[in-house]
């Protein structure tokens, strides 16, 4: 029976090619616009570390108090840490893993002396950075906790930098000249570029074209005066001068993350943060009440508005377009089905039950949907290719066509069209056979 | 023509009418908002920065093995390196003017603070937020800024300081926007206080306009508040703005790495180190232009789909009423009466849909304001949208209406 209905549907669609074409085009464009904007939205709102994001937290301490806040409704504490608090939290070591981090941009003199010096991006971090974020290594590993305390001259480099400087061979144990000092390479990362860059949202806004090429021990970078290359925000002008003055100030320039595996650990860490604040308050540093935050990665990304609002607005508008296309298809299907009232009348008079009419017309709608889906698939492919021209570079590379998008496009097209076909089908099934037969 | 029979006829096929009206309502709502987004972005991109943007280059570079300390000897060494570079760039053929500069408008690397007319105010609030530019006596000429009051810096005004040295300058120039905000009676010669400090800084000159480097929404409250300090900022990196003779920019850009490596090879220059201002502008507004283009494409698809829907459904109705049209024609209706009937019918449906659409358009705008950083859409967008969908409806209905008008009266005599 199914084959017969498909045959009927194809015949009917062929009979009015113009109308069929209109419906297929509408579905195709509507689905393609939605899927293209969805691919971008999906790219920017993804979870960068899905297996662990609910265990990774960003502590925030309200070291500036209410006077630093802009608007009346804003109650948020600063989104980064000053040096003293970051070091105090590291020393207390209350979480399973924790790391203070700051963005650096040192220069490197390649071992091949014929090359010009290069400038690389990276972070100064603690040893626990690597196990905390499950950072994959191609060669070697991160450094040890004793390297942290001894301010050891060690470095972890990216596979990209390893390729550039050492031709991709195992370079663990070799030395690298960073800012005029020799560092021993202890690890080479495998491809690791989580998007959004959840551990440095403040500097990157979540997305960046910059590549993370080096990771140095935090203490070492501080001792060597490798200055912060990221944002620095101050509530008052530092009293001291230079990088040392910055370390003594209440300016915020350090990111901080902790791993807390159990609910109890989270509660304990919250208590610890509040206790730390009270301790400082008693020492006379703060005059305002406790106002700390401890957000996990998804909540942190949301709070920092990592998904650009443009991508969300585009998605909303494109979904609106899809709805218009569906309303349009519903109207055209209605016209198409009711035009065949006499055919329906004959079938019903010959004994076809209402269900048969339902099946026949929903299959016809489904075929239109499938054809629209195929067109939509091609247009989505074109769309995903062309958004790369209009999106910011750091986001453009993330939007791509993959298997799941392909399947989703077809499913959305077929389901949406069948939904649009429900009402026209229902109307078709209500056709009175007697009336139709009589008028002929 | 009386509307009564028309409305009676519309009642006979309610669902089709409702579907078209719904489609028109949604189209109106989306098109208004999309066009408003396009207009806002185009307006943003077209803002002049206040500079003469052609023939302007920005050089960003970093020294290798330069002193990293903050002691006077290190700072002096860094300043020497910087002055050598400026000399070398000035000596290049086709270069008109060079200034050190920590940033340029739209570069998104900025130094911001607050300024006040009284000493010791709060750093974060102050009387006004401002961005800081650091340049020498050639800053104005190199960027092509327009001085509207007071004087430019002289070579004697220009000093140097370490990148993180909190010392405040003794004199500055400000933009007119900032000057008017702080000193409506005239700013030249007045003292202001930077970043909640207590040391007065004298305003010596006022420039017509200079945009801040940041393009983000967080900086949208002080886009035109710039303060220019007569300073070379000393760090292990530096930036230079270079103005070239007209038509010679590409040649100069090409020659700059060689000239700088010639002065001192221990430095980092990469692909992005020498950039035309045009490229900086294109990067800064890429997302806005992209969004405008995307909204434009959505609008076009939307209007096309809606027009196609009207053509399709009206054609169906014409087919359905073939016989009735014939009867009317046989009873004396002219071709133009039939055409007008369908046109008026479309106007009625589109008008009904548009009324709902106006409410939807305003509602959508409200929602976008609430959830995203959007501004209130002026009402005339809705009126333009209304006109658009009505005209679109009339154009779309023309073909089926003409076909209806061409139905011969003889149809009335046939039974099928």
From TrEMBL, chain A:
One of its GO terms (cellular component) is plasma membrane. InterPro entries: ABC3_permease_C (IPR003838), MacB_PCD (IPR025857), Macrolide_Exporter_MacB (IPR050250). GO terms for molecular function: transmembrane transporter activity. Residues 316-433 form the ABC3 transporter permease C-terminal domain. It is a multi-pass membrane protein. Keywords: Cell membrane, Membrane, Transmembrane, Transmembrane helix. The chain crosses the membrane at residues 21-41, 313-335, 356-383, 403-423. Residues 20-273 form the MacB-like periplasmic core domain. The keyword Cytoplasm does not apply. Pfam families: FtsX (PF02687), MacB_PCD (PF12704). Its main location: membrane. It is found in: Cell membrane. Coiled coil: none annotated. This is FtsX-like permease family protein. It comes from Dyella dinghuensis. The lineage of its organism: Bacteria, Pseudomonadati, Pseudomonadota, Gammaproteobacteria, Lysobacterales.
TrEMBL record, chain B:
Its main location: membrane. The chain crosses the membrane at residues 16-39, 291-319, 344-364, 379-399. It comes from the Bacteria. InterPro entries: ABC3_permease_C, MacB_PCD, Macrolide_Exporter_MacB. Residues 297-409 form the ABC3 transporter permease C-terminal domain. One of its GO terms (cellular component) is plasma membrane. It is a multi-pass membrane protein. Keywords: Cell membrane, Membrane, Transmembrane, Transmembrane helix. It holds the Pfam family MacB_PCD. Residues 24-256 form the MacB-like periplasmic core domain. GO terms for molecular function: transmembrane transporter activity. PANTHER family: ABC TRANSPORTER PERMEASE YTRF, MEMBRANE COMPONENT OF TRANSPORTER-RELATED. Belongs to the ABC-4 integral membrane protein family. This is FtsX-like permease family protein.
């Amino acid at each position: 029976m199914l084959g017969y209905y498909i045959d009927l549907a194809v015949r009917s669609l062929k009979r009015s090619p113009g109308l069929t074409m209109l419906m297929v085009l509408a579905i195709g464009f509507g689905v393609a616009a939605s899927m293209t904007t969805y691919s971008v939205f999906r790219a920017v709102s993804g979870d960068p570390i899905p297996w662990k994001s609910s265990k990774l937290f960003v502590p925030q301490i309200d070291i500036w108090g209410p006077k630093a806040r802009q608007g009346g409704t804003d109650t948020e504490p600063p989104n980064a840490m000053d040096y003293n608090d970051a070091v105090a939290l590291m020393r207390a070591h209350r979480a399973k893993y924790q790391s203070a981090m700051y963005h650096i941009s040192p220069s490197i003199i390649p071992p091949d002396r014929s090359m010009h010096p290069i400038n690389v991006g990276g972070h100064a971090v603690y040893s626990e950075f690597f196990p905390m974020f499950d950072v994959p290594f191609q060669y070697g590993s991160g450094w040890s906790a004793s390297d942290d305390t001894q301010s050891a001259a060690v470095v972890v480099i990216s596979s990209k930098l390893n390729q550039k400087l050492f031709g991709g061979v195992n370079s663990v144990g070799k030395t690298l000249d960073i800012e005029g000092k020799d560092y021993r390479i202890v690890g080479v990362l495998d491809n690791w570029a989580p998007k959004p860059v959840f551990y440095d949202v403040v500097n990157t806004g979540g997305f960046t074209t910059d590549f993370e090429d080096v990771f140095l021990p935090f203490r070492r970078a501080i001792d060597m005066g490798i200055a912060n290359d990221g944002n620095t925000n101050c509530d008052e002008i530092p009293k001291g001068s230079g990088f040392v003055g910055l370390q003594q100030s209440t300016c915020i320039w350090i990111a901080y993350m902790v791993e807390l595996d159990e609910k109890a650990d989270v509660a304990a860490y919250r208590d610890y943060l509040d206790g730390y604040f009270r301790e400082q308050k008693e020492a006379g540093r703060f005059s305002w009440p406790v106002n700390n935050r401890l957000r996990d990665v998804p909540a942190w990304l949301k709070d920092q508005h990592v998904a650009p609002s443009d991508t969300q607005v585009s998605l909303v508008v494109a979904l609106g377009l899809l709805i218009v296309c569906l309303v349009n298809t519903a109207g055209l299907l209605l016209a198409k089905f009711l035009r065949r009232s006499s055919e329906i009348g004959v079938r019903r008079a010959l004994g076809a039950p209402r269900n048969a009419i339902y099946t026949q017309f929903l299959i016809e709608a489904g075929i239109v949907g499938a054809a629209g889906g195929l067109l939509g698939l091609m247009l989505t492919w074109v769309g995903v290719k062309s958004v790369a021209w209009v999106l910011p570079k750091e986001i453009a590379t993330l939007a791509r066509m993959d298997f799941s998008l392909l399947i989703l496009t077809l499913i959305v097209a077929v389901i949406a069209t069948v939904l649009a076909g429900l009402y026209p089908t229902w109307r078709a099934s209500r056709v009175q056979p007697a009336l139709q037969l009589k008028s002929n | 023509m009386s509307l009564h029979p028309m409305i009676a006829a519309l009642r006979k096929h309610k669902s089709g009418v409702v579907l078209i009206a719904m489609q028109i309502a949604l189209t109106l709502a989306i098109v208004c908002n999309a066009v408003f987004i396009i207009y806002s972005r185009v307006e943003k991109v077209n803002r002049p920065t206040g500079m003469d943007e052609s023939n302007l280059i920005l050089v960003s570079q970093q020294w290798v093995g330069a002193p990293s300390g903050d002691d006077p000897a290190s700072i002096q060494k860094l300043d020497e390196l910087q002055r050598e570079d400026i000399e070398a760039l000035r000596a290049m053929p086709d270069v008109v003017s060079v200034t050190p500069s920590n940033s340029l408008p739209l570069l998104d690397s900025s130094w911001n603070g607050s300024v006040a007319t009284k000493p010791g105010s709060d750093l974060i609030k102050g009387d006004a937020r401002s961005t800081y530019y650091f340049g020498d006596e050639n800053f104005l000429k190199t960027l092509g800024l327009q001085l509207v009051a007071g004087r430019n810096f002289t070579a004697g005004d220009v000093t140097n300081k370490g990148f993180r040295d909190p010392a405040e300058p003794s004199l500055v120039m400000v933009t007119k926007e900032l000057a008017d905000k702080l000193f409506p009676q005239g700013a030249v010669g007045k003292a202001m206080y930077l970043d909640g400090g207590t040391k007065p800084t004298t305003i010596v000159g006022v420039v017509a306009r200079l945009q801040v480097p940041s393009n983000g929404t967080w900086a949208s409250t002080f886009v035109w508040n710039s303060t220019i300090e007569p300073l070379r900022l000393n760090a292990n990196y530096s930036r230079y703005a270079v103005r070239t003779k007209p038509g010679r920019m590409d040649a100069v850009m090409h020659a700059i790495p060689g000239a700088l490596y010639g002065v001192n090879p221990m430095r980092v220059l990469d692909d992005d180190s020498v950039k035309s201002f045009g490229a900086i502008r294109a990067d800064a507004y890429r997302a806005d232009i992209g969004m405008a283009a995307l909204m434009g494409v959505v609008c076009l698809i939307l209007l096309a789909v809606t027009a196609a829907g009207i053509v399709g459904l009206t054609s169906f109705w014409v087919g359905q009423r073939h016989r009735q049209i014939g009867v009317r024609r046989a009873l004396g209706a002219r071709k133009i009466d039939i055409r007008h009937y369908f046109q008026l019918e479309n106007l009625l449906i589109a008008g009904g849909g548009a009324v709902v659409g106006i409410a939807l358009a305003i509602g959508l705008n409200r929602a976008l304001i609430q959830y995203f950083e959007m501004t209130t859409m002026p009402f005339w967008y809705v009126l333009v949208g209304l006109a658009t969908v009505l005209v679109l409806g009339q154009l779309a209905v023309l073909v089926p209406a003409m076909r209806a008008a061409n139905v011969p009266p003889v149809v009335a005599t046939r039974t099928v």
